[in-house]
Structures are given as structure tokens and as C-alpha cells.
């Protein structure tokens, strides 16, 4: 069976080496040695602003919204994983959907200003499949209207934009270290923040508001990453670079094999150093997609419909129609894509795609 992704597992001895450190220290939670080591190594590897490690990639969205968005209207993209919208609704903010760019698939910055009201407090946009939003223009709009900017950068591990870590942008950027992502800690995540005062607020918010054992800086909740997760991260990190290189080989194979077809692949924004995180293809219509998906499933190959449905059509959203997002959501399929994918399988996937077309 071939799935859309295959979790990378490091050699077990390398994970065990970290587990031995945990057994020796007897510290398995709360700010242990491995937690600190991972935080330091990630900042260094990513050349990123300061970060806070979290138990998953959704909690940092919730905390950033809690701290920055009040209970206001949050301008967001309908084309993302459900976590983006769910975090907004869960934090008792109101999602206001703005359509996406038909090729970049990120929020269409030219349509943001029309959606701003006196209730708007923040913009929460996703760098979809690691493809950056128009960060300069979003920054300009946010400054002009006094809004906060949060980026769901769940797909962006290692992505650079104009030579800098993409996590430099926005008031807060979040990432997911879920097992399906390029770098993972089993489950896990992080939030990145340049401003030292905001960093401090995010930090205490993720640890019950503690200043010390008996003093509190404010309201907080538990979003902490534990030592077992940090151990997995430390064991996975040395392999990330070579995994991304191997993914590039798979990407090039797909790209060549699909050149003379009607299928569209992702258009990357200029200035991006990408991480080869996903291989989405866009069909001319949903029936084509369903036909290809069925043909692949019959061969035990399971691509995923990232992202379907368009988030404005979730059952708990009373939204209006969002044309481009709904159209793309119905026609986009992420092909199996991971490091070291077997060439025979790749040929099988591309020949099924071209035959069914
Ligand atoms: C994976 C993902 C998340 C959630 O991350 P978890 O670590 O699973 O909580 C949020 N947003 C997007 C766009 C994602 O793909």
C-alpha cells in the first residue's frame, strides 16, 4: 500500500541513545535537557527567530490567536488544513474568508482590504504547501489597518524566502512537527516570534502562565513539548537535509512525467527556496480527479485530497461561496511523495495518471 506520505523514522539506535539520556536524567517533561537542545539546534538549523516548542502544530495557532486576536474577526484563507479555521472558531473568533490566488494557492492579498471591518483584529494566512503568501503586501495592509499577522507555516520547515527563514514573517509564525511533515517529533510543533515582549507572553501562555513555581504572569494553558518528542526530533533532524534532496529527485521525476499532460502543478512564488513538501496536481474538473483517484486506489495507491473541502463549507461555518477556493479544492490531489520513493512505484503512479486522463 502506498500512501500520500511515509513517515521518516531514524535508525532506532539513534533514538535509543536519546532515550538513555532521558532515563539517566529521569526527566521526561517540562523543560528538560533534550527540549533545550532541540530548541537550540532548530533555531540554528533554520536560522530563525526565537521559537517555542509545542505539543502539536495546532496549539500554537490557538495561543497566537488568544494573545493577538481577542474575539474579533480574523481574515483567513479557505484553502488550508481544517486546523487553521478550527483554531479560529475554537478561540471564539470569527473567520472571514478571502479567496485564494488560482496558481499560488495562497490567500489573494488584493482581496484582503475589502474584507476588513471595524471588528477585524488579525490576519491568519497559510503558506500553502510551503509556498509563501505575499508577505510584503500582507505586512503593508496589516500595518495600515493596525492588524496582527499570524502565519500558519505548518508546511514550511526549512523554507526560505529572499534568503531568510519564512518564519521571520508575521507577528507569529507556527509550524507543525506531525509525523506527516518533513521534520517531525511524532506529534509536535513550534511558534516563532521576533518581538521579545510578545515572545515572553507566548512563552508563559504555553506553560500555564508560570513565572516561577508560585508566581504567574498571566493566563496560560499547557502546550508544552515533552522530552520523548524532543528525542524524536533530535534523532530526525540530522536526516532532514538529505530527505529534502531525495524528495527533489522524486519531484523532478513527477515534473518530467507530467509535462505533456493537462495537469497543472504548483506555481512557486519568486524568491522561495522550497522544501519539496507536497506534490499537488490540479485536474481540469472534479470528475477527472475522481476517475484518477479510483484508478490509483485500485492499485493500492492512496493520494490525498489536500485540501478538501474548501473551509468555508465546513458544517459549523455559515459562509458564502468562495469561488476559486471551492473550484481548486474540488480538483486538487496530492500524489504520494516522500524521500526514497521507489522508481517503479513512481512509474506506476504517473502511468495511471496519464492513462486515466
Ligand atoms: C498539519 C497542519 C496543521 C496542524 O498541525 P498538527 O501538528 O497536526 O496539530 C495546521 N495547519 C496546517 C496547514 C497543517 O497542514
UniProtKB/TrEMBL annotation:
Keywords: Pyridoxal phosphate. The keyword DNA-binding does not apply. It holds the Pfam family DegT_DnrJ_EryC1. One of its GO terms (molecular function) is transaminase activity. One of its GO terms (biological process) is polysaccharide biosynthetic process. The active site is at residue 181. The keyword Amino-acid biosynthesis does not apply. The modification N6-(pyridoxal phosphate)lysine is found at residue 181. Belongs to the DegT/DnrJ/EryC1 family. This is dTDP-4-amino-4,6-dideoxygalactose transaminase. It comes from Salinimicrobium sediminis.
Amino acid at each position: 500500500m502506498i500512501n500520500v506520505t511515509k513517515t521518516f523514522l531514524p535508525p532506532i539506535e539513534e533514538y535509543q541513545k536519546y532515550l538513555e539520556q532521558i532515563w539517566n536524567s529521569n526527566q521526561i517533561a517540562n523543560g528538560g535537557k533534550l527540549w533545550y537542545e532541540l530548541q537550540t539546534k532548530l533555531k540554528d538549523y533554520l536560522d530563525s527567530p526565537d521559537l517555542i516548542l509545542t505539543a502539536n502544530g495546532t496549539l500554537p495557532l490557538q495561543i497566537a490567536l488568544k494573545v493577538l486576536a481577542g474575539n474579533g474577526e480574523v481574515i483567513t484563507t479557505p484553502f488550508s488544513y481544517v486546523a487553521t479555521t478550527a483554531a479560529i472558531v475554537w478561540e471564539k473568533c470569527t473567520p472571514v474568508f478571502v479567496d485564494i490566488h488560482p496558481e499560488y494557492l495562497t490567500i489573494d492579498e488584493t482581496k484582503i482590504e475589502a474584507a476588513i471591518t471595524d471588528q477585524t483584529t488579525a490576519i491568519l494566512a497559510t503558506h500553502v504547501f510551503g509556498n509563501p503568501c505575499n508577505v510584503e503586501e500582507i505586512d503593508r495592509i496589516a500595518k495600515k489597518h493596525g492588524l496582527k499577522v499570524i502565519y500558519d507555516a505548518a508546511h514550511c520547515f526549512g523554507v526560505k524566502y529572499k534568503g531568510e527563514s519564512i518564519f521571520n514573517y508575521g507577528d507569529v509564525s507556527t509550524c507543525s512537527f506531525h509525523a506527516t511533515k518533513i521534520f517531525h517529533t511524532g506529534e509536535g510543533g513550534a511558534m516563532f516570534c521576533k518581538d521579545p515582549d510578545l515572545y515572553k507572553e507566548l512563552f508563559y501562555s504555553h506553560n500555564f502562565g508560570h513565572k516561577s513555581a508560585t508566581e504567574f504572569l498571566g493566563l496560560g494553558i499547557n502546550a508544552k513539548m515533552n522530552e520523548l518528542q524532543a528525542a524524536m526530533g533530535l534523532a530526525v533532524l540530522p536526516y532532514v537535509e538529505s530527505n529534502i534532496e531525495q524528495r527533489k529527485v522524486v519531484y523532478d521525476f513527477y515534473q518530467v512525467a507530467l509535462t505533456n499532460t493537462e495537469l497543472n502543478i504548483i506555481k512557486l512564488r519568486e524568491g522561495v527556496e522550497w522544501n519539496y513538501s507536497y506534490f499537488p496536481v490540479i485536474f481540469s474538473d472534479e470528475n477527472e480527479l475522481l476517475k484518477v483517484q479510483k484508478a490509483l486506489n485500485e492499485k493500492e495507491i492512496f493520494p490525498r485530497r489536500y485540501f478538501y473541502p474548501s473551509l468555508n463549507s465546513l458544517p459549523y461555518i455559515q459562509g458564502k461561496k468562495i469561488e476559486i477556493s471551492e473550484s481548486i479544492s474540488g480538483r486538487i490531489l496530492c500524489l504520494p511523495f516522500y524521500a526514497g520513493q521507489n522508481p517503479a512505484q513512481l512509474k506506476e503512479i504517473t502511468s495511471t495518471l496519464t492513462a486515466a486522463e
